[in-house]
TrEMBL record:
Range of residues in the leader sequence: 1-21
One Pfam family recorded for the sequence: NLPC_P60
GO biological process: proteolysis
Gene Ontology MF terms: cysteine-type peptidase activity
The keyword Transmembrane helix is assigned to this record: no
The name this protein goes by in its record: Cell wall-associated NlpC family hydrolase
Length: 481
């Protein structure tokens, strides 16, 4: 939960449950921490203090004095995003990249990610990854093939695609028998995401790319290469549709498999072909019951093309980003409730930092990809904590949490949703979870998905609470001079 993947600095997501207990137990409680007290008997679903009513966004919105208060309007969000691009080093402005990248820059970008870990890794069969598999994977980096000057290419992602630490589909794990968290899985990109292509693997099947929020390897078959104006201008002008559900899908079409039942995740924005005659068919289906959107595809030579596709009106989409209000944040967060936890957006789902960033993406707010970057972003209104911050300071900050505030502990992020009976409640995408049970021992839950829990009883180890471990709280507020 708090250590990094062994081949890079601290990452944003929780580690496997088998590693969790040992890692957290090694962290000694601060001297000011009180001994944990047994919490009340677990309630709904075995989750401490949970009531079934708490699993509905309306329950929390109805408790607010002004749930439809606009936190930031469209102009303020645009200013916030400009601040994020200007001040946060984890955000990459693709428009500012030079036409030619020097070898040292490309090599440095790849090596900062694709460094083989020193610890033993295991395959899905439980056997250690062999030296042959290691050599083959490293050879596929093709580092010797990077030219002195690499001409920059641009592309659009055509299908939800994994971002990988190495150019391989090989799944590797930290321990035998725990195959839930693939250590080479980094993140994912969605249809319409723009990328800059920096390098190609030796087997020609992978591209090393930089997107707005991440640099990693992506399968070449999911990227259409086009000119900069087309790629960077895609979806920048209306009309368009914004995906406001956890996911939406294009219509099934055997005539054009490239855009058939395509998964579109929350916050994806697609341009609409507004002048398409509604009686005219799109891929064998009349258009009147759908929105005709323009989607990127890749031809046989890898070139980018934009073609029409149907996005049924039954899918959860809107003609603009949703208003940034407490009610919206609650509604959007609860659309993921019960979704399986997916490390690095594995399983076609998401992890804790992807969860919160996609909630905010549906209102048009740009967030860094990983919690390690989100937690310290200078573009957000940050409250930082150190080991010197004692319990009263932390408790006071927790009591002041507002809907939508993001609470960070090492390797994890949670979103505040409200206060009831002296407890602060959160929604978060978690691989684990635990609290002190009625018998005084720690209950290790396997929530393994988007869950609602109280903050105060949550324990990172037998002696250290989540509140003890808070490193940062981030909040979006109107900017003042």
């Amino acid at each position: 939960m708090i250590l990094a993947s062994p081949h890079r600095p601290v990452r944003s997501r929780w580690l496997s449950r088998t590693v969790l207990a040992a890692v957290l137990a090694a962290n000694l409680a601060p001297t000011w921490a009180e001994a944990p007290r047994a919490a009340p008997t677990a309630n709904f679903g075995g989750v401490i203090a949970l009531r079934e009513a708490y699993l509905a966004p309306g329950f929390w919105a109805d408790r607010l004095p002004d749930p439809d208060r606009v936190i930031l309007d469209r102009a303020a969000i645009a200013a916030q995003n400009a601040r994020m691009r200007a001040e946060d080093g984890s955000i990459h402005d693709l428009r500012t990249l030079p036409a030619q990248l020097p070898r040292a820059q490309v090599l440095g970008s790849i090596q900062s990610l694709s460094t083989w870990p020193e610890r033993t890794l295991y395959g899905q069969d439980g056997k250690p990854i062999s030296d042959g598999q290691r050599r083959e994977t490293l050879a596929n980096l093709a580092l010797d093939a990077i030219p002195a000057q690499r001409p920059l290419q641009y592309g659009l992602v055509t299908h939800r695609a994994a971002l990988r630490a190495f150019p391989t589909t090989l799944r590797v794990f930290s321990s035998q028998g725990d195959t839930d968290i693939d250590r080479f899985q980094e993140s994912a990109l969605f249809p319409g995401d723009a990328v800059a292509v920096l390098h190609e693997s030796a087997d020609g099947r992978w591209l090393f790319i930089t997107s707005e929020r991440y640099s990693a390897w992506i399968e070449k078959r999911f990227v259409g290469i086009g000119d900069a104006d087309t790629v960077l201008g895609y979806g920048q002008h209306g009309p368009y549709r914004v995906v406001t559900g956890a996911t939406a899908f294009t219509a099934y079409t055997p005539e054009e498999p490239r855009v058939s039942r395509l998964q579109l995740d929350m916050g994806v924005r697609l341009p609409v072909i507004a002048d398409w005659p509604l009686e005219k068919t799109v891929n064998g289906q009349q258009a009147h019951a759908a929105h005709v959107v323009q989607l990127p595809v890749r031809d046989a030579e890898g070139r980018l093309a934009l073609i029409p596709a149907l996005l049924p009106r039954s899918q959860d989409t809107a003609d603009d980003y949703l208003p940034l209000t407490p009610r919206t944040l609650l509604t959007q967060a609860f659309k993921f409730l019960g979704e399986r936890y997916g490390w690095g957006h594995d399983y076609d789902t998401r992890d804790c930092s992807g969860f919160v960033s996609e909630i905010y993406r549906s209102v048009g707010v740009l967030m860094p990809r990983n919690t390690s970057a989100q937690a310290i972003s200078p573009a957000l209104d940050r409250i930082a904590f150190t080991a010197k911050d004692r319990k009263p300071t932390r408790d006071a900050a927790v009591k002041e949490l507002q809907v939508g505030d993001l609470v960070y502990i090492p390797g994890h992020v949670m979103m505040a949703i409200g206060h009831i009976d002296g407890r602060t409640w959160l929604i978060h995408d978690t691989a684990g979870g635990g609290w002190i049970g009625a018998d005084g021992t720690r209950v290790q839950a396997h929530l393994n998905g988007v869950s609602v829990t109280p903050l105060e009883p949550m324990m990172a180890s037998d002696t250290v609470s989540y509140i003890d471990r808070i490193t940062n709280i981030q909040r979006l507020r109107p900017q003042t001079p």
